[in-house]
Structures
1.
Amino acid sequence: MGYIRLKTEIPGPKSRALQERRAQAVSRALAQATPVAVARAHGALVEDVDGNLLVDLAGGIGALGVGHTPEGVVEALKAQAERLIHMCAIVANYEPYVALAEALNALFPGPGPAKTLLANGGAEAVENAVKLARAYTGRSAVMVFEGAYHGRTNLTMAMTSKYALFKKGFGPFAPEVYRLPVPNLYRTPRGMTPEEYLDWSLWNLENALIAHVDGSALAAIVIEPVLGEGGFIPVPHAFLRKLREIADRTGALLVADEVQSGSGRTGRMWAIEHSGVVPDLIVAAKSLGAGMPISAVVGRAEVLDAPHVGGVGSTYGGNPLAAVAALEALKILQSPGFMDRARAIEAKVREVFEPLREEVPALGDVRGLGAMMALEFVKDPGTKEPWPEFVLELVRRNAERGVITIRAGLYSNALRFLPPLDIPLDMLEEALQVVADNVREVYARLA
């Protein structure tokens, strides 16, 4: 018997009842990818309120690299809740905040002393990284890239790509943000080889320092080493090296937004480590907290110390409960062989779906790194016209058959997989085969 066990249709009657309550009580603007109402979860298995067991390949949008309710995290939360739930690091000091900062400082890949600032979520940490860069450099301009997602605050919306979903109706946005293309080799322009496209992209970075913003005004270059919402696109290492070169030459800071790609997701603690490039600052969140709300800016000590005393702060940032959860998550991630499992997950995804490209031409690309994989669907493999309707239908069918998935991509035409790193491979294969069967069925119906 497999892991997926369905007692009712999805959504079942209790899920539908809770969905109706949500519709009456919660802002309509808050989207929901699947109609599942969850009662409990452990590892990669989710039990809904109707008693159905589903495999979770969404992982809280990448927040559960160590899985749902890992034992060490649960026990640490219980013990901490009996001692101290909240204090605020602005008011007084406490061990979990300092211990987590020390642990993250030790994981920073750069030379010299490092320091950390804790916050609640990815957007808050990205905004803090920009503030730190501006304070350190005395400059204001920020360079970002197409397909990026950095958050939903006013500044991070300005930095985020994909206007219609994340930004429409919410402007005006913060100024001094300059957006450039990032090479998506699957969408290499016609008439160019991937190598020529990458060469043009490197040239365009230099051109941007004349056409968009002078290097002397540049405070920070902020990039996701693997684009998250943009479609799980690994940024070519040559592009990351060029950004490091420009940062060194201009005095700007290179900031790696590792909110989704970090904390072991790609098989290294930070995805940028695969390239050998050392950033000045790293932004971490999501899987760092094992499901608890915490984020961090980690980097060069002199940058973290640049603002005036009192210039940064957060009421709940580094909350004791969230901090001990993050400490336990880091222990799990660094346990022998744990992050290595990301490679096995990538291999399994490729094993199931790369052969399917011949059978289903709509499956245009299988890509990603480690336990951060995506499938991109197109109406025509020649023109690569995006097919977002395909993915909407696929997400719906996956949920009906016991697999929780979500979309991604600048065109909303990619399906992403973000399982916990320790998902049993037979469980992963069962879930992926469900998705593969649904791909075939959706293609047969829509093609």
2.
Amino acid sequence: MTSRKPRVVLGVGAGIAAYKVCELLRRLTESGHDVRVVPTADALRFVGEPTWAALSGHPVSAQVWDDVPAVPHVRLGQDADLVLVAPATADLLARAAHGLADDLLTNTLLTAHCPVVFAPAMHTEMWEHPATRANVETLRSRGAVVVEPASGRLTGKDTGPGRLPDPGELFEVARRVLARGAGDADLAGRHVVVSAGGTREPIDPVRFIGNRSSGLQGYALARTAVARGARVTLVAANVALPDPAGARVVPVGSAEQLRAAVLAAAEEADAVVMAAAVADFRPAGYRDSKIKKTEGSGPEPIALVQNADILAELGRTRRPEQVIVGFAAETDDVLANGRAKLARKGSDLLVVNQVGEDLAFGRPDNAAVVLGADGSETEVPRGAKEALADVVWDLVAARLKPAAPG
């Protein structure tokens, strides 16, 4: 017996970014989702009905008056497993926040019992206007996931926040929200900071001291937090991965740069998860020109100095209500070393995992034990890094104090 395909309503607002949503639709249908496209009437000025119908395999309408016996203005929302709106224009966000129902899409939003995700796209001034920000907060307060837009080139010569995130990354948000189901935006209203990747400590203009971290686990943590409603700051050290939709990405190189970025973002964060592999040492001096090989003699020793312990610093300077999570990559005596590190660092949780050849670094899977300062131990069997990310956020959410009423 085959299981039912997940039903997705893909709402399309009237923005130039509608053309990018064709790629999002293709990803959804090719991965086994049953997608009904519901555009606004003006959205069809950007991408026509035949395109949406051909890509989805379903008829497309923006009107409540088409196929009236099937009551589409009620049934679409009632039957959906997810409603995803992209691009969500300023006008569409306003109508959704105020409960207007003047077309098929806004009717669908009012009848949906499932998770709802909005992916805004508009000019920077529109996104930053107090009216739009208030509408976004209203929608989030009702449990909707409103993905922060990306920064970049907009229409014309304008550049700034308001760009629709990459369709592949929006697909990942949709996939994560579908996996968790309704009522699980448990990080809504929270600001979380995640570090990812591996720092590089320069020796000269060519060489550096680094490590094998790919950033995959940190990016999984960021994506999962976005899907659970959080505002995410991702401090990324030398990561060659697309920016997760909805996360503000701060690129860094060295341990000192990562420290400065994390401490700045942590000042008003509810939780900080230090998933980056930070170099313990850096060269004591930097050579302005490439170190040359000298025939007949070995290389000069490179003197090292210790980098700041960022996790311990976070533990010392934290606010009382802040949740701090560290990662411990160990090669032997994994749990013993992890327990000792947890005691030293002052964090609430420590994710301990074994690393080495074909373990953790650069792989899509991971296994870990999450140690708690309260003496708890949560074993996470080997599986997708997103599964470990969800366990970490489950444990973080359980330790967060209730959010203050808005």
3.
Amino acid sequence: MFTALPFVGGTELPAEQTYDNIDPADGSVLGQVARSGPAEVDRAVQAAARAQPAWAATSPEHRADTLTRWADLVDQHREQLARTESQDTGKPLSQARADATVAARYLRYYGRVVEAFYGEAIPLGPELHAYTRREPYGVVGSVVAWNYPLQLAARSMAAAAVTGNAVVLKPADETPRTALALAALAQEADVPDGVVNVVPGLGAEAGAALTAHPQITHLGFVGSTETGRAVARAAAERVVPAVLELGGKSAHVVFADADLEAAADAITRSILQNAGQTCSAGSRLVVHADVREELVAAVAERFRATTLGRGLDDPDLGPLVSVRQQERVRGYVEGARSGELVVGGSAPTDGGADGAFWLPTLIDGVDPREPIAQEEVFGPVLVTTPFEDEAQALALANGTAYGLIAALWTRDLSRAHRLAADLEAGQVFVNTFGAGGGVELPFGGVKASGYGREKGIEALAGFTRTKTVAVRLG
């Protein structure tokens, strides 16, 4: 049995209180997690505040080399990280391995691009020399979700640290271990003690203490819209910037001229990946009436062929993260008042019945005003709604409070570009679905999906502030 302890200033802190870390595949106890509170958070912030000035004074080249060493260590420990991630989240091992690979990619990518990031000269005439500087905020606080704990921790740590900030990260209650492992590997890569700190614990305790701490100068949050509002209020109280990546209700908009086989494959992947527990999951299928029957049948066939099992056995679909999440999914599915249940609709009754599993579920012809079509279910549940023309398709796709991702499936590229401009989403994919996109692609939402951007070079801008300097010459 392990105990996941706070990693602060390059060392582990003892745990005053702990709680159980549960295996979602069978409900067994994997180990204990330290229940950090305001005292541990304050120690982490003080450690970060001591370390940050000297770290910021190093050259971008030095920080880039350090992150590259860190990335190499993540690659070396890929299998161990993946197995831990699979156990904590329940996701299939192959998906967890991909997450470990992407975590290293974040560190390596930001290490490579940071040297080309800083400042610009502004021509104001021969008597004035004007330029901008990009400066770190100082101590940044980050609270991340449980669905991609390794990726989310890596992308936050990498972009914040490489720009000269120090980080205090609070991982999700259910999935703390890979963030702690990343912090330990950072120390091995010679990231100075205190630059990267991780405080596990409960959101209402450790998370609240972190977002309210007076020395935190920037906040990042990945999670539900409801909690995001609380984080935004905490940031507003102290007038510090925040980047919020919140929920989604992403739509696949499939026209009659689409490649239906390719669309069916991507639609299936985008809702079954990580058991549908992805903010960018393609949870709505908005399909032209002429191809609705054919496409629904194709997706249903793929759903029926899906294998279920514990993550370490690498099935197509693992369990949900907890029994609580399973009950949330059950509530949405059993509460649906319209549509025809085509596949699934329940927890399995045979293998996996003791875990937090849910069968791939497809409900055809759902009223778009229903909660299951409007709210984030966060499970392997897909609902469909037909349309007759472009205007109706656009209205349906934009017809939720969210705006994270959308996908267009059509061979008409004029239509694709036209509608991409009108879709209310932070990312739009055409004849593909990126489930959040690559490391290089700016990622974030509009409306209730949040604000600010992570990933890509834009994330570096988010972790720095611009200072303008103008000097009269002569």
